[in-house]
Amino acid sequence: xxxxxxxxxxxxxQEQLPEFSSPHVVPKEAAAGVSLRSVTKKYGxxxxxENMTLDIPAGxxxxxxxxxxxxKTTALRMISGHESVTSGQVLIGDRCVNDLPAAKRxxxxxxxxxxxxxxxxxxxxxxxxxxxxxxPQGERRERVAEILELVGLSHTAKRKxxxxxxxxxxxxxxxxxxxxxxxxxxxxxxxxALDENLRVRMRGELRNIQKxxxxxxxxxxxxxxxxxxxxxxxxxxxxxxxxxxxxxxxLFNQPxxxxxxxxxxxxxxxxxxxxxxxxxxxxxxLIRLDIDGIGTLHAIGHSPQPGTDAAxxxxxxxxxxxxxxAPSVSxxxxxxxxxxTARITQVELTGFxxxxxxxxxxTEQTLLHTLRTVDWHNLALQEGQIVSLKWSANDCVFLAH
Length: 401
Ligand code: ADP
Ligand code: MG
What we know:
Layout: H1 3-6, E1 34-43, E2 46-56, E3 61-65, H2 72-80, E4 87-92, E5 95-96, E6 107-110, H3 122-132, H4 137-150, H5 166-178, E7 184-188, H6 196-213, E8 216-221, H7 224-230, E9 233-238, E10 241-246, H8 248-253, H9 258-263, E11 268-279, E12 285-291, E13 295-301, E14 309-314, E15 320-322, E16 337-349, E17 353-360, E18 366-372, H10 373-379, E19 386-392, E20 397-399
Parallel strand pairs: 3-8, 3-9, 6-7, 7-8
Antiparallel strand pairs: 1-2, 1-4, 4-5, 9-10, 11-12, 11-14, 12-13, 14-20, 15-19, 16-17, 16-19, 17-18
Helix pairs in contact: 3-4, 3-5, 4-5
């Protein structure tokens, strides 16, 4: 083959990759669940993880999500065995693995930069873990061939990693992790080196592979959209603690804290104090809050003591905008409607969706409303206008901390 044909193409969204073949040839391994019991990790005086307790059920796609430095990688490396725990227990299945080295945990890790051996061929890279496990040569040959076929890259077996495109390298790293037939696969920011379009495609592939193999995947990411699109379970981490464990839908509808509401993006958050509460549905309360500079708002949640500092949040798509000159549409619900007055300060047409930036009149708090562009045009409003913002108490999430 001519040298030029072997040169890696740039990491680009137009990259051509063959479809994954059906993995029926690869036997399903029993997935294992993972648990952390009061795990703490200290590096000298730095506490990276403090008293973390978590259950990840077998066979699910779990993402550890949080900003840089919150302890995601540390948590993952304690599960994989690349880092020891300072105190607490790590369980894989129902076995405590604190004293087992990484190679004995029946797990595999896919690192951020893929960590492919540059001087080994694709074949040798994929075979490496099997050699470590002292799998006999005949079986090694079969399993490497099988997994390369699965990821559609048999034809690259003789190449070196630098003769692969970004997407191909990612697949080889995945093949190398899967060939050892782990019960749990861990991935540390596996898509961060790829451009946006390729990242979106690759995350679809990761999700498919996880489903087809039925393995437990634990992925670290700081990318909210990635966590939402991949996960069965999202663990939101903040300064070495877990703030919330939830499905994507729960997280979207019911953020548990101000941190989570802010981190998952664009929620409108109001700070104030609890005035009073009355029982509502499903063990929750209708809570009346006094919001600094704005007045009374109503939210749904688990009621704390009156007088407590608290907050509430509403998603930008759940607000409605009304021209104050137009007759008000009365709502059919029996729950109170929250209303406040704001000025439109920015209008951004992003395609199907329009993002409307607003500023509250008294407190100059910045708010965001998103709506379909067609609905925005129908409202016939413009920048600088004063409007009423309304939303139901039912869409207003009470945040205790
Ligand atoms: P994340 O993956 O969420 O970005 P990390 O788990 O890498 O976060 O780091 C969590 C905290 O632990 C950070 O404050 C980081 O500086 C610290 N840390 C991580 N690894 C080490 C180490 N080997 N030595 C000292 N501090 C570390
Ligand atoms: Mg990290």
